[in-house]
Design a protein that fits this description.
Blueprint (H helix, E strand, L loop, with lengths): L1 H21 L6 H15 L31 H4 L9
This protein binds zinc ion.
The site of zinc ion has 6 residues, from loops.
């Protein structure tokens, strides 16, 4: 129980350190605290689903372009290479 609460406190501490860097330009300690609290509520609101950007797909084969996915697009390897070198 103690270890779990220690991890929660440390993760919250890291979050607020990040907010301090984000909102440092406000120059007002009270506004910094207000914005940090709002940002924390936004990030930890269970009603808001976690957001991950959609991965790009190839317009030719409709496979993922990212090479981190095993079955990714290989169309650029199949297309003939253009010669862009100067004459
Ligand atoms: Zn493709």
């Amino acid at each position: 129980m103690g270890l779990l609460s220690e991890q929660c406190i440390e993760s919250t501490h890291a979050d607020y350190n990040r907010y301090d860097r984000i909102y440092a330009s406000t120059g007002n300690k009270l506004k910094l605290l207000e914005y940090s609290m709002k940002q924390n509520l936004l990030e930890h609101d269970a009603r808001i689903a976690p957001f991950t950007p959609t991965k790009r797909r190839c317009s030719i084969c409709n496979k993922y372009i990212s090479k981190s996915i095993i079955d990714h697009c290989n169309c650029t390897k199949l297309l003939p290479q253009t010669n862009n070198s100067p004459p």
